[in-house]
Amino acid sequence: xxxxxxxxxxxxxxxxxxxxxxxxxxxxxxxxxxxxxxxxxxxxxxxxxxxxxxxxxxxxxxxxxxxxxxxxxxxxxxxxxxxxxxxxxxxxxxxxxxxxxxxxxxxxxxxxxxxxxxxxxxxxx
Length: 125
Known about the structure:
Elements: E1 4-12, H1 18-34, E2 38-54, E3 57-69, H2 72-83, E4 87-95, H3 97-107, H4 113-124
Antiparallel strand pairs: 1-3, 1-4, 2-3
């Protein structure tokens, strides 16, 4: 099967403590590794306010995982998300070559460098 780039964002319930949150994230990264996926990056966005209440909760812990794998890996991962009551929402998307390049630049901190450089030059003049 063809190897593709994926990105998944999931929201965990806010009633978890820090160790439970890390344990949950490790569980899902382990699911990916067991199914021969290569994890490119994992980002913790932290506790954020939700746009609307989900399960009577107005905040949640956001996490982003970028990985590569075959198509059946998404089904396995989403089944694990559905079985875990700590996950209140999740979304997995396939990344095209432009999104992969954008994410690579964002991870390397190359975003907004040109804009910051132009602003610093304008201030210097």
